[in-house]
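Notes on consecutive records. When two proteins share a document, each keeps its own sequence and its own token line. Never mix them. Below: protein one.
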Amino acid sequence: MRNPTRPPAVPADIRTVPALFRHAVQTCADAVMLRQKELGVWRSYTYAEVGEIVADLACGLVSLGLAPGDVVSVLSNTCREWLWVDLAGLTAGGVVNGIYPTDSASQLEYLCTDSGTTLLFVENEEQLDKFLEVGERLTQVRQVIVFDMEGLANLDDPRVISLDRLAELGRERRKAQPSLVEERIASRRPGDLAVLVYTSGTTGRPKGAMISHANVMAACRTLEAFLPPTRLRERAAFLPLCHVSERIFGEYYALLVGQTLNFVEDPDTIFDNIREIQPDVFMAVPRVWEKLYSSVTTAMREATRLEQWAYRKALAVGEQMARCQEQGMPVPRGLRLRFWVARKLVLDNLRRMMGMGRVEVAITGAAPISAELIRWFMALGISLNELWGMTELTGAATCNPRGRSKPGSIGVALPGSEVRVSQQGELMVRGAQVFMGYLNMPEKTAEAFEDGWLKTGDVGRVDEEGYFFITDRMKDIIITAGGKNITPSEWENQIKFSPYVTDAVVIGDRRAYLSCLVMIDQDNVEQWAQERSVAFSDYKSLARSREVIELIAEEIEKVNRHFARVEQIKEFRLIETRLSAEDEELTPTMKLKRSLVNRKYAALIDSMYADKAA
């Protein structure tokens, strides 16, 4: 299953994504590009195979009338077909826009209208239904192409065809016009728009970030220059491809350095699939790393006393190694030997159990993460490096160097990126990866820049070694009634290290004291309750249980001890509804939207301040 051959370096004159893909197909034809399961068995596709599929689909798009610069949208979960049509759309000279599979029909309508989508890909019947609900108003969408036609055999709609039919049209067009693919690839220039990524609309309508071919190539070249090459380069693809992280660090960067993408079966099988894949390179949002940590702590609660003792001893040795690494100190010979024994007897087994047995490059990004969680992974021998970026940066601008990580920091500026702290404390970035601007929003684009520097909205600082630290979002800083400035993310990151907490939002702007809303981790809290014979029937009753409320109170008190009195949480409430990516309170990367939570749970928040004194 491994893919050990490293492709030749990509020449500097490869400056667009379709040219990059063509180069990969020509130089790595027989290497495995991607895998996905079919009926429970991994099916491999070589670069040559994918090259043929993409060429057929690209010519099919031209047959449907796609002109250079036209927008193609994709409404699907992450899968091989997503990648195929993305590369096909770009190869045909189009612009590709991703739509989250959790978006509603009304959101689909807005995104297609705002982007000017002419051709729409949907995953299956469920996603097609969203289009059919609003299709009469989407007159500019000429054709809808469906990946999986199960349940649609009797559909009679001239605007809807299958992906297989698109490929047939493409093969016919290729025979009639053999040079079409090369002509379309040649039509693209580095400064042309390649990708649209819509940012979450927590304060209004989503904004379409315009990312050029030059932006994509700069972002990928930056990662290539900064990250160490790995021996085997197996990747697990599971984050949404409409999110900039998986699109850049997953798909396009994989093309540049020859990594193999292994697509997970569905969001519910991520952790099972990771154990099968045992990736060499793994990037995930903090919530995934938190779940991996929780899986080990849960397993240790069920382990024998001997196993628990061995885990504590091995982890203690790992923590000593991690401290040496963090402080830049040489590791004593005896400690190296003890750590080798700890890994062989205990820690490597835990890593394999998580699916991290072979990981060489481990990255966390897209949201803040607890420094203690990073240190825990370091103790296992996994150098988990925090990366910082945003959609408008086409991915990342800073990252912690492997082997020189500073937990709590977002690392140093990546090659080609200039990062500075403004007089107001805001992080600002300049470089070739900075986006073109917001589609149809020239005023918002102008607001995003100052003297050629992108204003990121993150408040931070830089130390004497060039490591940057984020203290909070400028718009999230809380000013209490007493005039104290509070950065809520510091407290929130620490409480999320608890295996019983998924997320939390600190409240307190213009209030007498701080409070918070907490979203519990259902799996771990349910197991905790069952072990103690705590009665509950569903998620709501679990969150209302006196014992569970006391459990979370204890976890909050543990975190409070690390903060000054004015920064401590005085009251809290549990969110009694289990939230998923389909709920408006969560972003697609599973972060609670602070402004929306403040509005939606206003009554619950007010209850924490009724008749109470600071």
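Protein two starts on the next line and is unrelated to protein one.
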Amino acid sequence: MDQLDFITHEELVVFFRRKKTEISCIRELHVFLMQLRDHDLVPEDLYKEVIKRKSKKTIQDGVYKILDRVEKNGGVYVKEFWKCVSEDHIQQEYHVFRTLLRNLQDDSFKKHVKLPDAEKPLRNKDGEKEAQMKGTRKRKRGDEEIKEEEPGPSSGSSQKKAAKEPTFWEECVLSEDQWFTPHEFERFSGKGNSKNWKHSIRYRNTPLQNLLNEGHLQCPRTYRRYDQKKTRLASSCVAESSSPLSNVKIEEEDIKQEEEEEEEEDIKQEEEEEDDSKPVDLSKFQNFALPVCCGSASGTLYKSRFAGPSSKSIRTEEHWFSPEEFVKQEITLTEGHWKKDILCHGKTLNYLVKEKILYIHSLLCYCRLCCPENQQDHDNDDVCYICNTWGNLVCCDGCPRAFHRDCHLPTLQEDETEDTWRCTFCVQKKTNQGLRIKMNLTEALQSPVSGNCRRCEYMLLRLYKEDTRRVFTDDPTTTVEKYSSMNPKPMWLNRMKTKLQNKEYKTMAEFVNDIILIFNNCKIFNKARGKFVANEFGKMGARLFNMFEEDLHTVFNFQ
């Protein structure tokens, strides 16, 4: 059953009422309004009226009007609202609904629906309540009832009660069953001299200043009282954030200077960046993987993994890096910044973010990229290195590669990967480091396969990897018409894999001759059809054969 089925309609309506203003303030409302229309939560005429509005204020008023209509229709409509905003495309587009739905799922919403006890006056209203009681007291003078007057400022009364000065900060941090102001919480935690609670107090290792900058915490408006000499006496918060973290209040003037400094840094950074006003062909950024570089360091950025500066989304030959880590690979940059120093097709990542080619997730996002169950899961590829598909993968402990058990050579058994495991690519690389064979190519081809099995597996894996179209992988006689008549001795990679595992090869020459046979058959077939020069498969065969020749010299590392 859905978690919403366990919440009463009354609770859903009250929580919805508390969050209407917050929901109406979301940006880019078009998708959200279409979703409500699709679920019959907003009539067509009201939908068209709101989307035609131009100013931000009138649009928010229109959205609030729609939400108000949903609330008035009752709990069934409100429940349908929460269900429609829980769909994946809405969750991806609007982080506010991810937070609100999470509140409904973990029962934290109940603190929003519980009404305050009316019999207990608020602490900061004590003085006001006492004054109201005094103002309404009556005493008898003869036969008349006269309302007792309070002494004025010029009455000279020595018994005038001093007004209670409001505090700058309310107690908003709960720790060990005690409430603290931010400054008190700093002292309680042992950082009483820090004097910078916006950076020292953290949520999920994120400073409150960052949450403020992203809009999860909003500054309360403050009114200040001054004496005749314009000396500031006190501050009283009169509004608070409607964010899920609204119990943390931040004074507006305390961050004003920091906001100005950050703005100056942003302006300086934009001046240092390349001119992004020139026309750019955005089609080159549409691929799921983008080439990136930072000085001499190069890699590939995968959009599906990118969530911000800390997400491991850049793949090099040996490692996965986050943008912040990738910048550090260029040792000449002492103070590199990922937004301006990592380039893709000559453009900064800051440009890609502004153009919505890349999306930075919210600091409060709980997706698998932002909150992985195991951080090491992002150190390896998400798909098989050989066939480039998903599934049950075995991850190498020496490199980022991952494999299906049947795609790897040798084929992996269950008990082989229980402890630390390294793939054939890592084993071959380690074997070749500093080792040179005292023989020439002719002698190497005459050597037995039994002593070079790992080299054969490595070369076959390389061919499997490069054969992305699976032209040479499967039996061509079953897929290509008239292939057998043109090539009486067909050969393909899967057959070579079987022969190698069954130990049918005796010498390296036999193994190498089968690889040569595969590409010679490809050449003969395409030439007989008059398409060898233009055919992409013929060109692929020539390229793979050249790669094989290079690999043959690499794996033996001749002197």
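For the record: Confidence is low (pLDDT under 50) at residues 115-168, 221-257.
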